[in-house]
Amino acid sequence: MARVRAPNDEDIISDALGRAPDIEMGAEHGRWRLCRWRQFVGSYTLPALPDPMFVVHIAGKPNVRTWMRDGWSETASLPGCATIVPAGQPTGWLVDGELDVVTLSVASEELQRAPIHDQFKRMRFAFSDPLGVALTRQVLGELYTPQTPARDVYVGALVDALKAHMLRGPASATAADIPTAAFSSHRIHTIMNAILDRPEDSHNLEALAERAGLTPTHFCRVFKRATGVSPHQYVMRARLDRARLMLEQSDTPMARIADALGFTSQSHFTRAFRQFAGETPSDFRKRRQETVQ
Fold this sequence. Notes:
Layout: H1 9-17, E1 23-26, E2 32-39, E3 42-46, E4 53-60, E5 64-66, E6 81-85, E7 91-95, E8 99-106, H2 108-112, E9 124-128, H3 130-143, H4 149-168, H5 184-197, H6 205-212, H7 216-227, H8 231-249, H9 254-260, H10 266-277, H11 281-292
Antiparallel strand pairs: 1-2, 2-8, 3-7, 4-6, 4-8, 5-7, 6-9
Helix pairs in contact: 3-4, 6-7, 9-10
């Protein structure tokens, strides 16, 4: 008789959300699994997960809360925050707007062999982890490029680096690093969300720095430390992420997409998209349409 596989973290989350992840990949024998989830407003209850999970808040509204003993947490997760969900602990989530997260589950037996794994024994919500976020974003970006042996090796190396970072634990993951209204990173996250909401706007460096209350040079340093990329790269990536959705979900002409998202020309858009996704916008649209059919 065939052995029935026990539900993993992703099975449980899919059942709770009523949908599969947008994209997923994993190692052989289930040692780790990485998924991207996009979900809209609502409250959700997750049963206890069999494996601990590292969660990175990629984009969406800056008002995601978790259930504490007697109510929703006062602290809210913002894009750029990380959370650790331990194995064996049910959790509740309140999402005030669209949520975009990446999860990395690591098999419990893998952690038992690690020299340090205490950080996975308790819930740690919405802490600052710039390196973990930067690695996660890089992995996610690679997953949308054409699959090749070289890409798979590179993604595997990135995930190994992220696992090693998780096992070591971020040096600055303390309560003092949680963004609050009085903390400068809150202003950075506000700017990040403004860019994600309207990537087509100019978002010039001087205006962004003034909004953060910093000089342009200092703002660039702080922003890159928080996101892993420069403000210009973040704006460009936000535009290309939006372009990818428009290519997938509509038949809008390339020239109109380029104009709508603030590119100087269709050729500028094509060059930037090819560098971002490894293929032209038209090839990307054609491949996605063939996948759906």
